[in-house]
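User: Okay, second chain of the day. Same drill as before: sequence in, C-alpha cells out.
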Amino acid sequence: MSGATFSGASRYVLDAELAQIVNVSMALEMPLLLKGEPGTGKTMLAHAITESLGMPLLVLNVKSSMKLVEALYQYDTLTRLNDSRFGDSKRDVSDIEAYIKMGKIGQSFTADRRTVLLIDEIDKADTDFQDDMLDVLDQMEFDIIEIDKTIRAKHRPVIIITSNAKKDLSDPFLGRCNFHHIAFPDPKMMRKIIDVHFPGLNGALIDAAIEAFYKLRQLEGIEKRPATRELINWLRALQSDPDFNPKRLKEELPFLGVLFKKSQDFEQASRLAQRRGRY
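Assistant: Same drill. C-alpha cells below.
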C-alpha cells in the first residue's frame, strides 16, 4: 500500500480529526463511511483526497433501484445482438468478453494505478446491496458469470462512502467501515471555508452574510436548510452588486432564491426579511 498521507487540499478546509480518520482508513485498508447533512463536504472530501494524493477519482452515484452487478460490470447484450444481426462490427460476436463493460467498482479494480472510489449516498440502496457490496470490497474480487472469469483488484482503492443518514445502515455494514460524522461547520469554521473560496473579499460583507446565513438556517419549519454551497453562491450574488453595502444585511435579505429552493422555505425566509425591513 502507498505510504502517502492526506493533509488537505487547496479548496478544502480540513480539521485534524477528519485528516486522522482518512489516514487511518487508508492504513487499515478499510472503507471510510461519512455521515452528515447535505452541504457538509462529504463528497468534496473524495475530490480533495484525489487532489492531495494525485489519484484518479471514480464516482459511483447510488440509486434506489440499482443492482450491485451494475456497479461491477455490464454485459451489453443489445449491442452484441445488433452486431450479430448486421455483421458490420469489428468485434467478434462469439467473444462475449468484448461486450463486457466495467462499472465503477470494476473500473477501480482494473485500473493500472490506485484510485479513490467514492460511493455516494449509500443510504439510497437496500440492505442487500450494501452488504453484498462490502463483501466484494472486502475480498477485492468479483466474478463475471457470463464468461466464468474472476476480476481481482490490481490495487486496493481508497474507498469513501457517504450517507445523508436518511435511513439506518445495517450493523454488518457499519462494522466493516471506519466512521466519521461531519458536523455542519460552525461560524468560525465557515469563515475559514469562505476565506478559501473568496480570498480578499470584503471582510465586513463576509461577516454580515455569515451572521444572516446562520439566522436563516435556524428558522423554524424550514424543510431544506441552506448549506455551504448556497452560502458561497449567495456571496457571489451579493458581490455581483458593486454598490451593495454589507450593512444593509441588517435590514434586508436580497437574493433569497439563491439560499432557499423550496417554495415554503422561500416564503418563510421572505417573511423574515420583511419583518427586518420594518425595524
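The longest helix spans residues 203-217.

User: Thanks, on to the next one.
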